[in-house]
Amino acid sequence: MHKREDLPEDRHKDPGSSNGLASWQTVKWSGQAHASAVEIIAEEKALTLYVNEEEFATVLCSPLALEPLVYGFLASEGVIRTAGEVKQVRIDPGRGTAHISLHAPLSPDKRATSKRFVGSCCGKSREFYFQHDVRTAKTFTRQLNLSAAACYRLMEWLEANSSGFAMTGGLHNAGLCTVEKGLFVHSDIGRHNALDKVFGTCLMEQIPAGDKIIAFSGRLSSEVILKAAKIGVGAIISRSAPTDLALRLAKDLGMTAVGFARSGQMNAYTHGERIQADVESRE
Fold first, then answer.
1. What are the Cα distances from residue 221, in Å, to 226, 248, 275?
2. DSSP label at 77?
3. Which of 22, 210, 254, 283 has the smallest C-beta neighbourhood within 10 Å, fewest atoms?
4. Number of neighbouring beta carbons within 10 Å of residue 26
5. Residues classed as catalytic
6. Binned average pLDDT, 10 residues per bin, the chain of 283 residues
7. Residue 227 and residue 195 in contact, taking contact as beta carbons nearer than 8 Å
8. Residue 93, phi then psi, degrees to nearest 5
9. Cα Dmax for the chain
10. What is the pTM of this model?
C-alpha cells in the first residue's frame, strides 16, 4: 500500500500551499478614466518532480492539490498505473519540489525522457501516437447513456464550482461526474494539469472512472482527449471548441466529445448517439 505523509483533513489540498490566488496592485482604465485598484490573479508555481531521487520533470502549475497532480502526471506519462506502485510522496510547496519513491526502479525509457520542462498552457504539444500513449489510453466500449438535460446540468455545476475562474479569469476547471451529479472539481492554470489532478484523485481514492464523465472548461485538444482516455471516462463535455485531431482521436477511442456546452446549447461531435433528448421535451 502506498504511503502518504502529513495529509491534511482536506485530502485535495497540500500542507503549506496557498489558495492559488494572489493580489496585484493595478491601474484600471475605462475609456479615458482610470483609478488604482487591487486585482485578484492566479498564482503560477514551478513544481520539480524527483522520481527515486532522480529529477524527472518540472511542471508549471497552480499550487493547489499538488499530490493528485503528481499521481496524475506520473500516470499520464506511463510511469505508474496504480497508486499502489508509489511507496511515498513528499511535497515541499515552499521549495517547489515533490519527491516520489516507487516500489520499482524507473524504467530506462522513462529515465531517458526525464528532466523535461512542462509548461502550464499546452502540455508537451506533441502528437499522441507514442508507444506509452497507445499502451495506456483506453478505448471505451461500455454502455453509457446521457440525457441532454444532464449535460447542461453538469456544466452548470462545473461553473458554480469554479470560483477561482470567476475571481481571476485565469484558471481551467475539470470535474469528475456521474450521469446524475458532479463529484469533485480541480482547478489549475493549465488545462492539462486540471485533468491530471482528476486522474490523480481517481488513483489515490480508487474511484472507478469507467462509468464517469468529465466536465471541462478548456479547449478539446488531442492531448485533452488522450488524458481523458487514460483516466478511462467515456465522455467529456466542454464549454469550449475542439480541434479536428482531437475529434478523430475521440472517435477512434469510442469517446463522446461535446463542445460549446453553454446556455442550454451544445455540439455533440463524436458518438453523439449516447445523448438522448429528455422525454418531457419530446412531448
1. 9, 11, 21
2. T
3. 283
4. 12
5. 122
6. 36 54 95 96 96 95 97 95 98 97 86 59 47 71 93 97 89 97 97 98 98 97 95 97 96 97 96 86 48
7. yes
8. -60, -35
9. 63
10. 0.87
